[in-house]
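Obj.: predict assembly geometry.
Materials: sequence records (below).
Method: joint structure prediction, all chains together.
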Amino acid sequence: MTRTLLGFTIALVAALLSGQSTASLAQPAPAPVTAAQPAPAPSTTPQAPPRETVTGDLVQERTSIIVPVFATPGSVDTAAGTTAVLGRQIAEVIAADLERSGLYAPSGPDGVRAIAMGEVTAPQFAGWRGSGAESLVHGFVRADGAGNLTVGCYLYDIALGSELSRNGFVVQPRDWRRAAHRCADAIYSRLSGEAPFFDSRIAYIAETGPKDARIKRLAIMDSDGANHRFITNGQAIALTPRFSPDYSRIVYVSYLANSVRVYVYDVGSGTQRVVHESSNASFAPRWSPDGRFILFSMAAAGNADIYRIPADGGPPRRLTDSPGIDVGGSYSPDGRRIVFESDRSGAQQIYVMNADGSDQQRISFGGGRYATPEWSPRADLIAFTRIAGNFRIGVMTPSGGGERLLTDSWQDEAPTWAPNGRIIQFFRTTQGRDGRSQIFQVDLTGVNLRRLPTPVDGSDPAWGPVLP
Amino acid sequence: MASNRLDRLDTTERAGLGLAIAAHIILLGLLSFQFGPSDPAQFSNPPMAVDIIAEVAPVATAPEINAAPPAARLGDPDSREASPPPPAPPVPVVRQRPPVLSKVEPMRQPRPTPHAQPQRPSATPAVNPPSRPARDPRPSGALDGIAAGVARDAQRNARAATPPAVQSAAAIRADIRVSINSEVRTPWNACRVSGIDVDQLKTTIVFRLTQSGGLDRMVSVNTAGVNDSNRPQLQRFEECARRAIQLATPFANLPQEHYTYWQTYTLDFEKR
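Observations (raw structure tokens):
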């Protein structure tokens, strides 16, 4: 009753209002925006396709890899010892290579359970999972009737229980270390994506004696420092060696009394011959990628220029003619360009030119000085020594961009590239009269810095290509 | 002014006005009395004690008047897919072992790659709609794209879209995200990739899950940000991403009732 009356009253009041208002009331009122909430959807399942980003850390622990002793189907005597002993030694070399790369933390062969021959292709993943390691290396050593060694090398993903790579190498027993390096290369390449580099050699200058009467000898060794051998006896001062692209020869500079010679040493025969001789200072010889020419720098009357000479000797051809000091040419891998340093602008900077000396362009513009440029075997970068207070190793692109310094010490100089273009070797001199020169290597991230052990002090390292 | 207006009223209106005034008086009178049975005053909620502790609360708790337009689409607009494929019984997740090679031959043999692995029977064979169904050409009336205009500020829009259904959808999404991301991140971190510019790589993997949360298959693997310097790492980078999913599956704790939502999932992998 009350409600009816109330409604009647409202109607009356409404009738009182003007015609316009009445008309607008007669229209259905537009619902306010906030009232337009639709009914809840029948399903609460989100509609947008699910997508998200998983961000990992770039700086990580080194990958742990287990390297047990390589198995052998039955220990047999070989020229390099029994296959059982070789199985342990090969695993040791592989673990040492992987450790030295800075990317991996190998465990074994010591302290790791030895495997049976049957496990090589059928690893007991369940047992290895407890170790927490990521990867597992298995392998075997087998001697055949012809006196050769067969070394099998397998890499497994422990968590997935899957095989990542397998390789086999047949070598003479005396080359067992090469088989180990090749196995380490296969593992490194598979896990890092980079080209191999362990199976390579290094030439360097071995230094002994006090600083004012230094004896400098040419020496070569494997990339891990093994098979070390002195080439020259130290009567003359040897400097700046470089392997020829096929490893058969080494070019270096020799100072004896007032005579400066560029020698080519034949590794196979142990003989050497002079390709250039002068009373003028000559330095920094470099091979052309095809091994037919040698670049070197020669100073005369306060001016130094870059020359090219046939690898077998002959008349040198001058490539630069600026009044300044142009030194240290290094070929691009395709042999069409040469990077060198020049002080024509007032201080040493890096320039590139065509292989015939034309189109010389400056590419470095930073403060301080730049020296000893070296083109990467992968062509994408040029390594150099940056001199600004201290000496540091850096890289830049061939157009001069993206400069990054990789080391920070008192004196790091003379970079040389690993065959895969991802590691740079150089020598580091410590301060003071008792300062030592030692060979170091660093990868392009600048994180993994390692000293390469040498029997005596070392300088001017030269990393050769991967052995054929 | 008022008298002028009264003067302009005609007789009918005067009568109406009189009637209205009379009716008001009657109404007032009627309201002064009580008809019908009188109910004693009752509170639906018992009274509660209120303590005034401060004049002004530290945080304003009054609901904000939301000026943002509502979300353009709040729920399932119009399910036009012919009945969704019946969910198959959960496929047990079996990790594949590589075939064991009996011979010790140091030769390279074709080994199974993740791509070449024998496909497990798919949870929804043949009837499977493509991972992203093609847009229905018929007009749906859903005003597609209207959200793009009104919802420039995604955050504002997200706050505006607070009807119950959507809020719980966001919660579901967050739950699934937490559950999947945390499980994938560990194996992704453990798989090392080193080199120049690898921080520029971003691998996008679209994969399908079984109803039990196991990996059904990977639909696509694509990587952006490749350049000359990081190209050597590309293969390993993608392998690590695939491996992370392989190792993280099966995902536990995914809400079964929302299988259609997480059945196809996209992850972007990066290392920073």
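Conclusions so far: Chain B touches chain A through 86 residues (CB under 8 Å).
To do: check interface contacts against the pulldown list.
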